[in-house]
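From the pipeline queue, job 12 of 40. The input is one protein chain; the requested action is below.

Action: predict structure.
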Amino acid sequence: MAPIRVGIVNDLALATTVLERIVSSDTAMRVVWKAVDGAQAIELCRRDRPDIVLMDLIMPNVDGVAATRRIMADTPCPVLVVTSTVSGNMDRVYDAMGAGALDAVATPKGLGPEGEQDSRALLRKIHGIHALHGRRAPAPAPLSAPRAASSITPIIAIGASTGGPAAIETILGQLPADLPAAVVIVQHIDADFVGGFVRWLAGRTPLAVRLAADDEAPTAGTVLVADSRAHLSLGAAGRLRYVDVPGALYQPSVDVFFHALARYGPRTSTGVLLTGLGRDGAAGLLALREAGYETIAQDRETAVVFGMPGAAVALGAAKQIRPIGRIADQLLLLHPVRKAT
């Protein structure tokens, strides 16, 4: 099996040396080039596209966010943010994810137990991203039991992966606080960053945003974000629940929630599938459409990666295909705010 080809982008020589040492310690990986800033990384990706790019955030000339955006537009490949402090750069981390980065980790320390732990975490991330990139995620089997009664609160279910944070931010920023529907978000994101993602979204929308809780009933005007420690589903009583789904490539899985919504959700609910690598959510969106729900997919022109919405379009799962800037308008037509009399 060919080694995983890795590009390193960092303006600090010491950090580059540490990253190169860690990558080279794994016989399944190989460093193919090193860049000192985002501009050089963009050019090197054009010349020799690697299997994964380890991208720093704060650099001269072109920073990691801008470089990620250009790489995803010109020569798309998996980007993992590796920065000195994830918590201290939270806004930049989610900006980079919105531009197309898949995940983020702290730059490993050079020596000591903490450094070894960070090194192992980095190698796991690289292997995990490489295993998922380009693979076809098996969709959960459609549920065949009779449909049970559920809550009357409509649910706007949004699924996303690569580039999702910025796309979700665009939609939520255009929805009013008195939205007569609940929003449930299933974004592919590492469990360590879900809390930060919730806080990041909360500052960008008038809606109330919080982490989805087990056994919670979605309520109008609330945005509930799926935790990544299990798969978010929906029970017969219309309450959210976390479940284990053996064999699912992505956790949380968009397909898992969409299939559950198709079985138990209010008929006035809507499924939305946004930018992302792979096919997660496509089969679930089809199940929603076949069950009579409204379904929307982001268009090719505004998607950072058209993989997930493109797969849904190919299946005929999307009743509507919209640019990201017009999806909120469509949702408000489907879920109009009642004017005070």
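Job complete. Residues 147 and 263 are 6 Å apart (CA to CA).
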